[in-house]
C-alpha cells in the first residue's frame, strides 16, 4: 500500500467547507463522510479530513487556533501557472481569501497562497521540472 497523508482540519461549517474544497477540485469520498466529517481527496495519496469542531475535540483537547493565526502552510503542486491562478480565483469566489502572502514568480517556480473559509493556509504552486536538472 502506498504511504498516504490525511490532513485533518477543524471547520466551522462542514457543508460550506465541502463546497469550497470541491470548487478547488477535491473530490468527496462518501465512505469517510458523515455529518461530523468529510474526506476530501486531492490525489491517490493526499486526503483532507474536514472535521466539525465537536469531532475535532474527540481527537485532541488542544485549542483550535483563531482563523487569523497560522501554524502550518500546506503546499500542493499544480500542473502550470494558469492552474495556480485559476484555483486562486476559485478560492476567492468561494469565500476564501486570496494572496494572503505575496505572489512569487521566480520563473522556474510560481506560487500564490490562499486561506480557506476557516483560515487554513494553502500554497498553490507550480515548478518547472526541467529547471531542477
Automatic annotation (TrEMBL):
SUPFAM superfamilies: Glyoxalase/Bleomycin resistance protein/Dihydroxybiphenyl dioxygenase (SSF54593). Gene3D superfamilies: 2,3-Dihydroxybiphenyl 1,2-Dioxygenase, domain 1 (3.10.180.10). It comes from the Bacteria. Residues 3-127 form the VOC domain. PANTHER family: BLR2408 PROTEIN (PTHR36503:SF2), BLR2520 PROTEIN (PTHR36503). This is VOC family protein. The lineage of its organism: Bacteria, Pseudomonadati, Pseudomonadota, Gammaproteobacteria, Oceanospirillales.
